[in-house]
Amino acid sequence: MVVLKVEPWNGTTADSPTTSDGPEGDKSHEMFGFQDLASDYYQVLRQKERPAWCRFVWGIVIIILLIFTGYMVYQLLADYLQYNSFVESSISWQKNLTLPAITICSTNPLNYTLLKDQLKTGNDTKLLEEFNHLMEEFVKSSTKPNGYMNISFEEFEDFNAFEHEFGSLVLRFGPHLYNMLFGEYDYVFRGIGYFVDYLDWSKYSQMTELGVCFELNDDGRLKQTVGGVKGGLVIDLDANVDHYLFTTTTKGFVVFIRDQDETIMLNRGGYVVSPGVENFIKLTATTHTRLGHPHGTCKNVPSQFGKYDHHYESVRECVQRQRMEAMVDMCHCIPWYLADRLFTLNKTDILDGYSEKIQAHQHARARARMKRQLENETENAEIENSETENTETENTETDNSESGDTDIEPGEESPTAEAPKTTEPPTTPWFWVTNQPLHKTNYVHLTCGFVEMYICDKKLEEAEMEGEIEFEPCPEPCEYHEWNVEIASTLFPPSEEYFDKFLRDQLYLPKTPTYDFIRENMARVHIYYDELKVNEKVQTKAYEPQNFVAEFGGTVDLFIGFSFFTIFQLIEISVAMCLTRLWQRRRKAKKTEESNSNSVIDNPSVI
Question: What pLDDT does residue 250 have?
Fold first, then answer.
C-alpha cells in the first residue's frame, strides 16, 4: 500500500514549514502546497512517495488513453463537420385543403384563320408568304436529325416591322380566353368552381410562351372540403381545332400545377390534355422544409418576375430566368411575353436593365436595314434612269432621222432628260407605336415579335446542342409546396347517347354542337384531392452542436477523466504556479537586499 504524506496549509507563513536561512531552507519555504491543488495526474506522476515502477506504469497507461482519446475526438469532429442531415416525414390531415394555382394554355398560340383573313384583307400577301415560309422551315427543321434551321432574322424584317407597327401577333390573333371555355362560367366551373367570381379576363389572363393562358386560384379561394372527384374542380375546355396554326402538332391544352406565388412563362413541367378525353388529375400535396448551407443546398433567391416581392423563385422559375436571359443575350431582344409581364407588374427597372444590352445592337440593325433600303432604292432609281435615257435616246434618234436635226454632241444633256433621282434615307424609324399597351411606350424596340421568338427559340436549342450555352444548376427554396400528380383519362363523351341526354342542351353554345364536334374539340378536366392530407417533409440536422459537445465530454471523461471542472483545476494550478514564481522572486530579491545591508554593517570600512 502506498501512503501519501499531505501537510495541510491554512495560507499563512507562520504555519508553513521553515528551516534555516540556508539553501535547504529556501527550497522548502513555499507559498502554496501543490499537493493540495494538484490534479489526479499530478498525484499519480509527481508524488515521490509512489514507487518509480508504479509511476512508470501509470505513465504508459495515461499515454495510451490520451492517444485513444485523441483518435475518438478526431472521429467525432470529422462526423460533425460532414454536416449530415435526414428528412422527417409526417402526414397532416385537414378539414379543408386549398387547391394549387392552375395555369391552362392552348397548344395553339395563334388563330390562323383570323390571321389569314386579316392579311388578305389588307393586301399583305407578301407578309403572309413570309410567315408561312417561316412556319414551313420550322416544321422541316423539327424533322431533321440535327434540328438545325437555316434561317436568319434579316429575312423577316418586314414581318418584324409589321408586328412592331400593329402589335404582337399573339396579342392580336391569339385565342381569347372566353373562346377556350365551353358555355358560361357558372357551368364551365363546376364542383367547387362556384368560388370563381365573374370572370375579369384581364385578371385571369397571363402571357406565356404558349400564348395567352388562363390562370385560376391565385388568391387560394378554391378549397376542397370533401375528398374524391366530386369534391374537386371541373372545367370544360374548347380546343377550336379549326383555327389551329398548321405547325401545331399537338391538339389540346397544357395544364400547369403551381404554387400561388409561382410564375409560369415557358412550356416546361406541364401536363397535356387532349380534346375528346375526360381527364382526371389527382393531386397529393407535399410541403418541403430544407436546410441551407452547410447542411443542405437550399437557397432563397428573390423572384424577379413574381407578383409578390416576398416570393422566392422555384426551380422552374430559376430555369425560366436563365433561359430568358440567354435569349436576351443571343437574340438582342426581350421575349414579348416577358416584356408584357414586366410592364404589367410595373417592373420597368428590369426592362431598363435589359435596354442597355440591347439598344446598341438594335440601332446597328436599324442602320443596316436603312442602308439596305437606301441601296435598293438607289439601285431601282438607277435602273429607272437608264431605262428612261435609253427610251429618250431612241426617241431622239427617231425624231432626228425624221426631221433632219443634228445629233446631240457628247457632253450635252438632252433637253427632255430628267435629273437623276436622289434617294434620302427613310425618316421613319424601324419601330412604331401601336395601340397595344406595351407598344405605346419606348420599350417597343426591345421586344421580340412572334416570328423573332420562333427563330430565337430554335437558335437557343441549337446553341444548347452544341454546348455553347450552359446553365447553372438551380437550388431549391428553403420552403416550398409540391404536388404529385397522377393522370387518368377516358373517352369523352363516352357515347352519342350520353351526348344527346347530358351535353347537347347544357353547353349554352351559339350553335347547337354535334357529337363529332364535341369529340374533336371538347376536353373535360377534373382537378381534385383524393384525400385531404398534406405530406410534410422536414430536413433536420443529424448532428446538432449540443450533441457534439455531449459526446465529446462523454468520451474524454470516460477515458481520461477530463471535464470542464478539470479545466478550472488546470487554470487554478497555472495561476498558483505563476503566483508562486512571482513570490519566490520577490522573496529572493528581498533576501539579497537584506544580505547586502548586513554585510555593510558588519564591515564599517566599506562606508
Answer: 86
